[in-house]
Write a structure and sequence with these properties.
Layout (H helix, E strand, L loop, with lengths): L6 H5 L24 E2 L6 E3 L8 H14 L2 E5 L5 H15 L3 H4 L11 E5 L13 E8 L1 H4 L10 H26 L6 H5 L4 E9 L11 E4 L5 E6 L5 E5 L2 E4 L7 E5 L1 H6 L9 E3 L7 E9 L5 E2 L17 E2 H11 L16
Parallel strand pairs: 1-10, 2-3
Antiparallel strand pairs: 3-11, 4-5, 5-6, 6-13, 7-12, 8-11, 8-13, 9-10, 9-12, 14-15
């Protein structure tokens, strides 16, 4: 395990230069000087309107954001600031634990439903990413909570409350997205079979040479929808019209990211967009994405009501287990796995 131990363990020796295993080829570096500021162009949607006579307008806004950007931000989402601050504090406390305590959760086996690891897939990748992460499956909650760390002392309580609240937010958004596609309100939720939910606590330490590496390189998310909470430190960037756009964090908001499965269900109306995480030399960054996904046995394909002579099915049907296996084997790459499932008429 020595060669795959945590990034934090590498940094404990006080490195002043990025070790070679993190250095990207010149053609695959972030080119940070060519990144554009978001200038408010990533839509911020007030979800309070979903519970008002303005519901149709908010659903239209969500549909437009899914179609044009694949990303949007939400406020008045139902999670109190106290809960948001608590989960962020819990993540920070976990990564401040002594290495011996953190390593109790360590594994490079991707089938483990609770695991601490580094980079993305240490078994297959040639260049590592500047990230440590704790990944937790969290639905159904009773199946997984006993696996979670019990240090920090409030870890299980805070994570269970947060993950349950995020699930309620996801289900609200899925109803709105279904409606925005002209489908029945419960269409997408029913497509997921028993559903799955997992989350990650991502820790990006300060990097002495951030121009040489990534926190995470450009990728699309293989799941259905991702709800991202991030601290005050910028790092998320989204590809729009061939240009990387930096998304500045807004307190008390979440970023909603359309995943590959949503693009399939929408028959390419909605887009799963490339995004990446960059690092900086002055401050650690923490992000907490929640990934909502179909059950492994769920059969995914374009919604029948979105297929017609002018819009033939863009993808064949497949199980989520089949999709995720191909995604994991490929690793994070600029080509998303959707191309492997396209039909000949697409």
């Amino acid at each position: 395990m020595a060669s795959t131990k945590l990034l934090l363990a590498d940094l404990a020796s006080g490195v002043r230069h990025v070790p070679s295993k993190y250095i990207r080829p010149v053609s695959d570096r972030p080119n940070l000087s060519d990144v554009h500021k978001s200038d408010g162009s990533i839509r911020l949607i007030d979800l309070k309107g979903l519970r008002s006579p303005n519901r149709a307008l908010v659903i239209k806004q969500i549909g437009q954001a899914c179609q044009t950007d694949g990303f949007f931000q939400v406020k008045n989402h139902g999670l109190p600031d106290e809960m948001i601050n608590s989960i962020m504090r819990t993540a920070r406390e976990f990564f401040k634990l002594p290495e011996s305590e953190r390593l109790k959760c360590y594994s490079n086996d991707p089938t483990k439903t609770t695991r601490l690891s580094t980079s993305f897939n240490v078994k297959t990748e040639k260049v590592s990413n500047w990230r440590d992460f704790l990944r937790l499956h969290c639905y159904p909650l009773a199946d997984y909570i006993q696996e979670w760390p019990c240090n920090p002392p409030l870890f299980r309580k805070n994570v269970s409350e947060y993950s349950t609240s995020v699930r309620r937010l996801v289900l609200t958004l899925l109803e709105a997205i279904s409606e925005s596609l002209g489908l029945k309100r419960d269409y997408i939720e029913k497509t997921l079979s028993k559903q799955g939910q997992h989350m990650a606590m991502n820790y990006y330490p300060p990097c002495p040479q951030p121009e040489l590496t990534y926190g995470l390189p450009g990728h699309t998310d293989p799941n259905l929808i991702t709800i991202l909470l991030q601290d005050h430190v910028p790092g998320l960037q989204v590809l729009r019209n061939g240009k990387w756009i930096a998304i500045n964090p807004i307190p008390s908001t979440f970023i909603v990211n359309i995943g590959d499965q949503m693009q399939v269900i929408s028959n390419d109306r909605y887009k799963s967009v490339l995004h990446r995480a960059v690092v900086n030399s002055y401050e650690e960054r923490i992000s907490i994405p929640t990934f909502y996904c179909p059950s492994p046995d769920a059969v995914i394909g374009p919604a029948k009501d979105l297929i017609d002579p002018d819009h033939p099915a863009a993808y064949r049907e497949f199980t989520y287990a089949e999709y995720y296996e191909k995604f994991w084997d490929r690793g994070l790459a600029k080509e998303c796995c959707l191309d492997l499932f396209k039909t000949s008429t697409a």
